[in-house]
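Structure, all two chains, one model.
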Amino acid sequence: MSDTPPVAGEPVAERNNTRLYAGVIVVEVIVVAGIWLFQRYFGA
Amino acid sequence: MHLLDWAVVVAYLVWIVWDGLRRSKATHEVEGYFLANRSLPWWAVGLSVMATQLSAITLVGTTGRGYAEGLSVVQLYLGLPIAMVILSVTLVPFFYRAKVFTAYEYLERRFDSRTRTLASLLFLFSRALSCGVIIAAPAVILSIVLGWNLTLTILGIGVPTVLYTMVGGVQAVTWTDVKQMAVIIAGVGAAVAVLLFQLPDHVSVGEALHIAGTTGRMQALDFTWDPNKTYTFWSGLIGGLFLMLSYFGCDQSQVQRYLTAKSVDEGRQSLMMSAYFKIPLQFLIPMIGVLMFVFYLFHQPPVLFNRQHDAQVRASARAGEYRVMEQEFTAAFEARRDAATALAAARRSGGAAPPTAAETAFRDADGRVAAIRGRATALVREVTGDRAFGDVNYVFPTFVTERMPVGLVGLIIAAIFAAAMSSIAAELNSLSTATVIDFYRRLWRTGASDAHYLAVSKLVTGFWGLVACIVAIYATNLGPLIDVVNRFGSFFYGSLLGVFVLAAGAKRATSRGAFWGLLAGMAVVALVARYSSMAFLWHNVVGTVAVVSVGMLISLLDRSSSPKGT
């Protein structure tokens, strides 16, 4: 195990994850809307 | 328990321990032991992230809360998907590229050794306590419901976990988490299926949910703005966002999960799994409780689900009073059952118009049952002196052991073990990481060989396992201990997030500002908790804001410390 601190910020080829993140937000909105409709239908 | 159920539980334990121990073949250096040489696929890491967060307390407590109150607890997780996106953009790539072992290593690079030491110490203290509670809570409940010896139950959960974690390191933790997540999902699925199948013939699933809805149990989302209410849409979205940012971004037990991924993108994808699936899963778990409520409308429940306290009251001087309550309870249950049946029939025949009279009659009948349970609970508190007594944590285990088919009882007991063990294993591994990397290698024994640090890492894992088991054995009064752990967690999480916000987002923040800001943040949260009735989720926001505010103020005033570069 080296004592030399590794270099931070080395360039790494990474994907553009914008669509992934947008998908998460869209799915959350749909799920929460679904829960809201569920409680409207079955709630008091 | 039936022999078949024992066989299922024993088979699960043997399988998990064997799988964990065989992972030691891939662990020859410290980087392999703690970070799996950054080689794990995103889906395994993602399941490990979920398993680490889903403890037995969630499985047993949330189902009980669903039984007693309904689905509102799902709001706790509303901020999670947003937190995962923010972390994927910010801290995940940063930690991964920095090639740190612990999140707190970064704090020394950015600020100073003192800040790193303080943050890591707070993590060690809070995680060691919570590890003990995660073992103790299901052990107490299972020992009471099944009649097992408490100490042996604690050791039955703790010892196998310590064994495979100590020997196999993070490879063992992750790959056993994958299997344990499968067992948990199978157990949750089995519980839902049995509950649905056991509905009376004259009550459909839809009618059952409508009946539960009559009592407010289907009110999952509460849009009122009330900072004193525990679970609302806003406390979950905003307070929960801060909690999840801190837990998944600054708590070593979760940070270490995604540091084991093959690449930054796979680390991000692992968090996205929780982002997609956590809310639906956490909707399903309290739904089990709601379905148990419906089940017990048509099958008489015990007056009290905690059999130990039930026996204590029966043996006390007030046993006669308790017997009268039982008779009243039986009569009230029968009236409620008839009202529920009538409500279901009224819905079937009434068309679109809600059967208001039948709903009112059912709510009144349910209120009478709840009132008798309230009196019985008060009686228990007086007889036993346990002022914190409440039996909602015993509802699910009681239902499982008394009402589920043979074989599936074993599966769900195994799922409870799996939920506990998966959380404990990750915590033990991260406790060892922080101890060795943040303290032992840095402050006690520098420049030793990798083989030395590997041996020490395994011993330290065993040490923390021993501490957790001791904490669990002596956590006889669970209520206050869980309160202490939760309160400390709320001081810690928000404040720690504040330090990382200063570190990553405020170039002018100084070491002195970060250190004293962290302490100030915890002090502010302590004052808020003591002198206000603000719900605990908001404490995370308070802590973060306090740390950033005080930290920046001190930094601006501090002319002698120059901020280190990021």
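Confidence is low (pLDDT under 50) at residues 1-11 of chain A.
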